[in-house]
């Protein structure tokens, strides 16, 4: 029996690294749309987080309750935010950033509207806990999406500018609440806080894309990946044979466990430590600055100004620290930031008698503590790979939120013990100093990314060709 020549068919398959296309891209309109929507999510989150504080005096007066009765309500919101960050981060790494973020916005709207109808402290407590669950999912996923659509050379800058929406929302919310409360009552503040996430959530449902790296890693909705990559870089020539890849492998199993694998365990623990310590200091200052400044002999309006200046410093820190990280790296920038934070916080107590000098120290503390926190959020987004990014960010923020719960409590206990103003601020400087130690250990371990551009393995921008026989 004679056999004919064997025919071999050669198939040409091109591969395109999705991460590399975005890393090397110019910031275009499509990416700016994503960043704008993420920033709006954070503005709304900032407003809704502060909403209870805006209406507390009106609720106390209308219901005839004691101030202490609302303490548990404030705590319930923070606990809900911690649990939301811890639990919904892994969900986002399973089903995607987009559905969790959109779902959180719509659930936040429903919870805020229900809060407007509350008629007892118990109802407020339960509803603020539920609202906190939604709010806890917003920062990790909004910041992750912002980073995943940003060019590498300015990624941290863009993530931090996007994150500044949280502080802007808290600040603008005060003006909105001041206008609504006298005319429409305290429930109107929660209704405003319900309408905004509903509108933005519906817009996102129509136009917000999923993370392209996530889709490529999961092998889902590749048509969407193609369309968005062509918008980001119109020069690309993507064919039906193009295979979309990312420089990592899909991970199996429980996302949380992967935070301690592939040499990420040390960085994970240190990142949790820095977040916990920094948010402890941040909420200690945010809650007690006006009170302490008042007891230092300043009038009520000056004490409130001192609290406001702290947040103003945070906005400036958000806008500038990202620029330093993108040019100098996380290690030098965070080390200098937390050294300055510890010194500035301690200094507040030494100059508290002078409003001018105190405000200078307070604005420096806000710049470093609040700006530093946003840099830590960006660090988590850069440190963790696509497959566990929301989990890593969620757990870092969730652990940090525990610090935000302890901060005001510790401050209250120290004031009850009649600590002097100088000693109170020395105590508040300790967490910032411990955050510095954790940053230095992180940096020395070699696990701290130098920058966003250096955190991902380099790959070719153009589709490469593979031959299969």
Describe this structure in words.
By secondary structure, this protein is mostly helical. The chain folds into 2 domains: 11-247, MFS general substrate transporter like domains (Growth Hormone, Chain: A, Up-down Bundle), CATH 1.20.1250; 253-455, Growth Hormone, Chain: A (Up-down Bundle). Helix content is 75%, strand content 3%. It is built from 16 helices and 3 strands. The chain has helices at residues 18-24, 29-63, 71-95, 97-116, 121-148, 155-184, 187-207, 212-218, 222-232, 255-258, 265-295, 300-328, 330-350, 355-383, 389-416, 421-444, and strands at 11-17, 243-245, 464-468. A 3-stranded mixed β-sheet has the order 2-1-3. It starts with 10 loop residues before the first strand and ends with a strand. Residues 1-13 and 456-469 have low confidence and may be disordered.
Write the layout of secondary structure elements.
Blueprint: E1 11-17, H1 18-24, H2 29-63, H3 71-95, H4 97-116, H5 121-148, H6 155-184, H7 187-207, H8 212-218, H9 222-232, E2 243-245, H10 255-258, H11 265-295, H12 300-328, H13 330-350, H14 355-383, H15 389-416, H16 421-444, E3 464-468
Helix pairs in contact: 2-5, 2-6, 2-7, 3-4, 3-5, 3-15, 4-5, 4-7, 5-6, 5-14, 5-15, 6-12, 6-14, 8-9, 11-12, 11-14, 11-15, 11-16, 12-13, 12-14, 13-14, 13-16, 14-15
């Amino acid at each position: 029996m004679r056999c004919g020549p064997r025919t071999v068919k050669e198939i040409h398959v091109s591969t395109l690294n999705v991460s590399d296309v975005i890393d090397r891209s110019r910031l275009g309109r499509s990416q700016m749309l994503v960043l704008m929507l993420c920033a709006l999510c954070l503005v709304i989150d900032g407003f809704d987080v502060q909403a209870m504080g805006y209406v507390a005096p009106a609720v106390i007066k209308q219901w005839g309750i004691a101030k202490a009765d609302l303490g548990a309500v404030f705590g319930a919101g923070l606990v809900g935010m911690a649990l939301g960050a811890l639990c919904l981060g892994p969900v986002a790494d399973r089903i995607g950033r987009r559905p969790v973020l959109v779902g959180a916005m719509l659930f936040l709207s429903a919870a805020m509207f229900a809060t407007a109808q509350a008629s007892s402290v118990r109802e407020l407590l339960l509803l603020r806990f539920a609202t906190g669950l939604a709010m806890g999912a917003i920062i990790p996923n909004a910041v992750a999406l912002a980073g995943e659509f940003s060019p590498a050379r300015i990624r941290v800058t863009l993530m931090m500018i996007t994150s500044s929406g949280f502080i802007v929302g808290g600040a603008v919310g005060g003006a909105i609440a001041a206008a609504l409360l006298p005319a429409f009552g305290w429930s109107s503040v929660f209704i405003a806080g319900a309408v905004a996430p509903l509108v933005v959530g519906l817009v996102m449902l129509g136009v917000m894309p999923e993370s392209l790296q996530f889709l490529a890693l999961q092998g889902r909705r590749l048509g969407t990946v193609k369309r968005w990559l062509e918008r980001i870089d119109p020069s690309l020539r993507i064919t039906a044979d193009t295979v979309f890849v990312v420089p990592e492998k899909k991970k199996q199993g429980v996302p949380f466990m992967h935070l301690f694998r592939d040499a990420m365990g040390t960085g994970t623990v240190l990142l949790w430590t820095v977040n916990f310590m920094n948010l402890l200091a941040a909420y200690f200052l945010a809650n007690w600055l006006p009170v302490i400044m008042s007891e230092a002999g300043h009038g009520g309006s000056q004490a409130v100004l001192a609290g406001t200046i702290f947040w103003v410093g945070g906005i400036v820190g958000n806008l500038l620290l990202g620029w330093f990280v993108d040019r100098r790296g996380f290690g030098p920038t965070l080390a200098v930031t937390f050294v300055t934070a510890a010194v500035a916080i301690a200094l507040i107590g030494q100059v508290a008698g002078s409003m001018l000098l105190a405000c200078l120290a307070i604005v420096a503390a806000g710049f470093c503590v609040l700006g530093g926190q946003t840099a830590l959020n960006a660090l988590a987004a850069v440190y963790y790979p696509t497959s566990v990014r929301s989990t890593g960010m969620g757990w870092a923020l969730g652990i940090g939120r525990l610090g935000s719960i302890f901060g005001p409590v510790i401050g209250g206990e120290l004031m009850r013990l009649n600590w002097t103003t100088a000693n109170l601020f020395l105590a508040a400087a300790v967490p910032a100093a411990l955050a510095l130690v954790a940053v230095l250990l992180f940096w020395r371990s070699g696990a701290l990314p130098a920058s966003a551009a250096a955190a991902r393995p380099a790959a070719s921008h153009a589709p490469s060709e593979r031959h299969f026989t």
